[in-house]
From TrEMBL:
<protein>
    <recommendedName>
        <fullName>WxL domain-containing protein</fullName>
    </recommendedName>
</protein>
Length: 128
């Protein structure tokens, strides 16, 4: 099983209280010959998106970041560092060239100091 071609990064930009969504989906390709299928999950590595400005104590809770994908049927689900969110599942092997999966993200910008806040998301593909 392989998970390849994962979008390396994305940016959400706005002012406090704006609800912003990714301009282009985060995509990846899952390839497996497991006839039972696969599941793909995502979760943040830390509880907060951290500021870039040295000394800033503002953070953005990772749970404010929401993901939508085929497994959510058009709804957005908050991320949680303790619980992976299923973003796709398939009860059969992928196509021989792999299956392309796409996720959108959104966030309601909180009232924090203007900055670039960063976090890391882990995508994990497992066979069923």
């Amino acid at each position: 099983m392989t998970l390849t071609e994962l979008t390396s990064s994305f940016t959400l930009t706005g002012v406090p209280r704006d609800v912003v969504t990714t301009a282009a989906p985060v995509t990846m390709r899952v390839t497996t010959n497991n006839f039972a299928g696969y599941t793909v999950t995502v979760q943040p590595t830390t509880p907060n998106l951290l500021p870039s400005i040295a000394g800033s104590t503002d953070v953005i809770p990772a749970s404010l970041l929401e993901v939508s994908g085929p497994a959510q049927v058009g709804t957005f689900t908050p991320l949680n560092p303790g619980t992976p969110v299923v973003v796709d599942t398939k009860p059969s092997a992928s196509a021989s060239t792999g299956d392309v999966i796409a996720n959108n993200y959104r966030i309601t910008i909180p009232f924090v100091r203007p900055d670039i806040y960063r976090g890391t998301l882990n995508y994990i593909a497992t066979t069923l």
